[in-house]
Amino acid sequence: MNFLRRRLSDSSFVANLPNGYMTDLQRPDSSTSSPASPAMERRHPQPLAASFSSPGSSLFSSFSSAMKQTSQAPLGPIESPGPSTPVVQRPRILLVIDDAHTDWAKYFHGKKVNGEIEIRVEQAEFSELNLAAYVTGGCMVDMQVVRNGTKIVRSFKPDFILVRQHAYSMALGEDYRSLVIGLQYGGLPAVNSLYSVYNFCSKPWVFSQLIKIFHSLGPEKFPLVEQTFFPNHKPMLTAPHFPVVVKLGHAHAGMGKIKVENQHDYQDITSMVAMAKTYATTEAFIDSKYDIRIQKIGSNYKAYMRTSISGNWKANTGSAMLEQVAMTERYRLWVDSCSEMFGGLDICAVKAVHSKDGRDYIIEVMDSSMPLIGEHLEEDKQLMADLVVSKMSQLPMPGGTVPSPLRPWTPQTKPAKPPGQAQLGPPLGQPQPRTPTQGGPRQAQSPQPPRSGSPSQQRLSPQGQQPLSPSSGSPQQQRSPGSPQLSRTSGGSSPNQVSKPGTTLTSQPRPPMQNRSTSQQGEESKKPAAPHPHLNKSQSLTNSLSTSDASQRGTPSEDEAKAETIRNLRKSFASLFSD
What CA–CA distance (Å, rounded) separates 354 from 352? Predict the structure, then answer.
């Protein structure tokens, strides 16, 4: 009891007590209250905190403070928070497909995804990779590389890919399109996209996209070189004019390109195409003054001019002079238009030739595997690294946890409870909900099912015994000796009580209730029921006060007896807990 007094004592207890509570306790036993006294006390409350200091008041103030704190609790049972699990942010694995001449790990050193997650760089060439892709398990990559004379064998699941190497080349006999298909099968994001990387495995296929841009923008804005495609050697009878440039199959760095001066040489080249068993293209030879290259890395643009010094008709063969030129709107239109093909190219470059007559001709477009040139190689590589980090930060990744490949991650969410629905009983080990105090915010109560008894059977008998409802003898209503007996009754079969919550009645002697009108019974039926059948002493006290306050709206002939009953009840509780 001393523990309750120390813990629940509050100097502002008067604000939490019903109006007229202290006045009723201080009256002598023989005094009687006028019929209108409860109403007058409700209209004119008087501060009595300074003049009342009995032992019972401290206990009642403690219970009132507890009731106030309970009324401010959220609806529903309080769930104890589980033990917090530390979030482990595993590093994101970036697979860079490039040769060993560039160490990409140093360009990603210190960079983090969203400023929090580390990036682990794995670098290898297409020839050093193998993989297995699954529908739900992603893609597992096996890597076998030789670094400083040491063979490294490793298996990992990459989160992102940077492609800096050609996946297909007829000249070198390299065909890694199956690896591109496997990476795409595993659903891995990449720069450039794996869809575009696969489409760039055929130069005539890419040139067909340039033809679409040519027809869209026109020859003035997008000057495309005239080219003819042959699926095999049979249609290659002659060329409309000479000299022409014949390109066999799909190759890079000037390989597979031949300059044909006359018809006889053209026939010889046709036989070579038949032996190669591949397609070929022919385009008019342009006597160029210099080559032009416009590159785009993310939102960064650069333009270069390359002039051959050795006199070779291929500007990228032999000695050449390279210089950076101004980025014009014409060049920007070229590279922006080409960057939209195949769903978008984050890294691309457009190659063109400037003829001696002052005209420009677009001849080719390159993707993320383009070679870097000029004096800004380190800057361009850093731009690529920043672009990859930006793309990785935009990907939806779970916060700190990664689902298992064979068991996809599904968040465990609890269904939200309806706002008007309350739980029948609190879970084991959790606090029991309490009834709010008089005048405080009320919690939503679940309506009790109507009982079969008539309204007259659920009312108190004149002798003040237990209600005559069939549930009066249930174990939930049994209490220890000396404690007040409470019973919960729900609305009967009366029309105005079928859908109303049950009312809580005290077991102390009360006058008969047969004289109440129908409207008064309807008002009483609107009172909320207790949230749980297991009531403690503080809930019993609050329910008694709430019931007695609601019963004061009866006829004047019953007010005097009701007030006397309330005072007796309060004194009995005060004497019970006084020591």
Answer: 7
CA distance 536 to 486: 10
List pLDDT tens digits, range 343-382.
Answer: 999 999 999 999 999 999 999 999 999 999 989 999 999 9
Contacts of 369 (CB under 8 A, 6+ apart): 163, 164, 165, 166, 167, 197, 200
- In the β-sheet with 92-97, what is the strand arrangement from edge to edge? 112-113, 117-124, 92-97, 160-163, 190-191
Q: Of the ranges 156-170, 383-397, 415-429, which one carries the lowest mean pLDDT score? A: 415-429
For residue 478, is pLDDT > 60? Answer: no
Per-residue CA distances from 572 to 440, 470, 566 (Å): 25, 28, 10
Cβ–Cβ < 8 Å for 49, 11:
yes
Ramachandran angles phi, psi of 95, nearest 5°: -100, 115
Handedness of CA 364, 370, 371, 373 (dihedral sign): positive
Give Rg (Cα) of the chain: 45
Q: What is the pLDDT at residue 517?
A: 44
Cβ count near 182 (within 10 Å): 20
β-partners of residue 324 are 304
Order across the sheet with 244-248: list the strands.
Answer: 227-230, 280-284, 244-248, 257-260
Q: In this structure, what are the phi and psi dihedrals at residue 151, rounded to the nearest 5 degrees?
A: -85, 125
Contact status, residue 99 vs residue 371, Cβ threshold 8 Å: no
For the beta carbon of residue 186, count every other beta carbon within 10 angstroms.
Answer: 21
Angle (nearest 5°) at CA 396 between 395 and 398? 130
Q: For residue 566, what pLDDT band results from cuts at 50, 70 and 90?
A: confident
| Chain center to CA of 209 | 38
List pLDDT tens digits, range 123-134: 999 999 999 999
Q: How many CA atoms lie within 13 A of 165 on its CB side?
A: 23
What is the signed CA dihedral for 385, 391, 393, 397, rounded to 10 degrees? -130
Could you tell me the pLDDT band of residue 61, with boundaries at 50, 70 and 90? Answer: low
Q: DSSP label at 563? A: H
CA distance 512 to 534: 27
The answer to whether 436 touches 442, Cβ cutoff 8 Å, is yes
Total residue count of the chain as it appears in this document:
579
Global pTM reads: 0.57
What six digits make up the tokens of 285? 């030879």
